[in-house]
Amino acid sequence: MNLYNTNGADRAPLSGDFAKQYKDKKDFLTEKDALISYLRMNQKRDGKTTPLANNSLRHALNLAVDKQQLTDRILGDGSFPANGLLPKDFVQNPTTGADFRTDSGDHLVYNKEEALKYWKQAQKELGTDKVTIELLGDDQETTKTIFAYLKAQFEDNLPGVTIKVKNMPSKSATQLTSDGNYDLSLAAWMPDFKDPWTYSSLFLSDYFNNHMSYNSPAYDKLVKSTDTTLATKPEERWNAFVASEKVLLDDDAAILPLYQHQTAVLQRTDITGVQKHAFGSPYSYKFIRVEK
């Protein structure tokens, strides 16, 4: 921002308070992203099951977060609630052209009353009225702000839940996640290519990036069918992806989707031709022009 304000830069990405502070300026832009932020829910740690192995607790946590307030008041950069695994405006039905989010619908939408019901059920199943859960993430200011909000949401809406926030350098947090040494951890995924597989494959039981001990034969069968028996049947393949998201979220509440990123930037009004991509490399700069 210092460089931008002193004409030392032509573009400046914004987050947090800066996004909210500058959103009314004429050179403020919001660029679409297909990046989804979510919480991993680790069901096994140090060889032992965690409280998050309990389906009712996972549902309770999912339903206890007001994502609209998170995106509007905490982030303020144009990001919006994610009520599914796959992002909006990313892939479309091969027959009808409908967006994936339209066909799959919303899942695990904030509902304080339902969250409390699931929490009471979890207390019975776990045999305790108190649960302490660690929340792991990097030490960036935006992450710390998000974590403070999530801690308040969980503890206020689910009396008896205690959240211990653990912020550390990104490399260390990533290592702990890879080792499965966490309860909840903040994750984000930007697609490598334009196909649901880039998201859905993340939670296959034998996938190298599944660091949360999630294992669902029903989910595995649906997702793997899209790469085998349904590989040449576009409509059936699409329906299998839609069905797999329902298993992951409605049935298992295996992750907690938070929001779909939007990139807030300040950009000089004489700059044109910046191309933002929904997958792969995020930008192409070769068409940029400066119109003096």
From TrEMBL:
Which keywords fit this entry according to its UniProt record? Signal, Transport
* Membership in a protein family: Belongs to the bacterial solute-binding protein 5 family.
UniProt superkingdom: Bacteria
Q: Which InterPro entries match?
A: SBP_5, SBP_5_dom
Organism, scientific name: Listeria marthii FSL S4-120
Pfam families cross-referenced by the UniProt entry: SBP_bac_5
Compartments reported by the entry: Cell envelope
Task: Check the record and name the SUPFAM superfamilies matching this protein.
Answer: Periplasmic binding protein-like II
Protein name, per record: Solute-binding family 5 protein
In what residue span(s) does the Solute-binding protein family domain sit? 9-207
